[in-house]
Design brief:
It is built from one helix and 24 strands.
């Protein structure tokens, strides 16, 4: 990074350099994009009423063969594919697009498309989520359950815990809405509806492709596994349409929000000559080293920690050190290095 120097006027010249280039947070394992959508047949009922789970020891997706009685068998799919069931109410459409196929028989429900993701706890900063959605005419037949809306859910859990069992595309509303959360935590739960739908709490969009910010996934200290469930609700199969694109999803993006650049400030101590006070902006989940050198012949990340001021825990939004000896050199450079603990 290009150093940003801050000349001071203390007894000896000190220079402040805030360094964040050592920070790296694995990102996008939560999932970015819709790279593929795989259709699974349903040997149990033929109408899509089954549940899915992830065998975390093998990374294999499994589905329930006996209608919710926890008799699971392996599929030939593992983490990383969006899963459609044999009803084909969803399909891949072009590059990285999921499209709902209208005209599904009455009594059916659209939820859900599933994706299991293995992350290994690497993602440790909150992740912002956005997606492009297209909502066409969402009219219903006489037996409508109400306005149709898309539902985005993400569940998270760790190794050694039991992940959720998630239902998909059931022929019965009480079943398709059913899922067992078990040890998982629901870290995203957002509804997206057409403008004027009146659905409480939903993000409303017009009948055109619109980028929707779904909010933030709080990953805490990092989860080992994630399960996405994306589909539609408020639907009874009587939509009365036969058009090709009732709605589509594309460009699902998960990313870490841009961090505020580190700014290090040095002022002479008001109480002790030759000593200085340091302050910088900090964020939770990070630790900091105050490092120093008398020249710039080596990269700041190689500078030694100054005065045992290493692995300093964050006290957001600002960290401060007071009364730190300046060393008495003719000139000295200081940097703050932000890193994961």
């Amino acid at each position: 990074m290009k150093p940003a120097f801050q000349p001071m006027k203390p007894l000896c010249p000190l220079f402040a350099l805030a360094l964040s280039s050592l920070v790296f947070t694995a990102n996008a394992d939560v999932v970015t994009g819709i790279p593929s959508a795989v259709t699974l047949s349903d040997p149990w009922s033929g109408d899509g009423r089954h549940q899915y789970r992830l065998d975390t020891t093998t990374g294999t997706v499994q589905f329930d063969t006996d209608g919710g009685n926890d008799s699971f068998v392996d599929t030939d799919k593992s983490t990383g594919d969006w899963i459609l069931n044999g009803l084909n109410v969803w399909q891949s459409f072009g590059n990285e697009v999921l499209q709902y196929i209208p005209g599904y028989p009455a009594g059916g429900n659209l939820r859900a498309n599933l994706l299991f993701v293995e992350d290994g706890g690497a993602t440790t900063t909150p992740q912002t989520v956005e997606v492009d959605v297209y909502l066409n005419d969402l009219t219903h037949g006489a037996d409508s359950n109400g306005p149709l809306y898309l539902w985005f859910e993400v569940f998270a859990w760790n190794a050694g815990e039991t992940g959720p069992v998630l239902s998909a595309n059931g022929g019965d509303a009480s079943f398709y809405n059913g899922w067992l959360q078990r040890d998982a935590v629901k870290v995203l739960d957002v509804k997206v509806a057409q403008t004027g739908s009146g659905i409480a709490g939903a993000k409303e969009v017009p009948k055109q492709y619109t980028t929707v910010e779904l909010g933030e996934i709080d990953v805490g200290a990092g989860y080992d596994f994630y399960a996405w469930r994306v589909g539609a609700a408020g639907y009874d199969g009587n939509d009365g349409t036969t058009g090709p694109d009732q709605f589509r999803l594309r460009n699902l993006t998960v990313s870490a929000p841009a961090a505020e650049p580190l700014q290090l400030t040095i002022v002479a101590s008001a109480d002790t000559p030759g000593h200085y006070d340091f302050s910088w902006n900090s964020q939770a989940g990070r630790v900091y080293d105050l490092v120093s050198a008398t020249d710039l012949s080596t990269p700041p990340e190689t500078w030694p920690v100054w005065g045992n001021q290493g692995d300093i825990e964050a006290t957001p939004d600002t960290n401060s050190l007071t009364g730190i000896p300046g060393g008495g050199d003719s000139r000295r450079f200081f940097a703050v290095v932000e890193k994961l603990p």
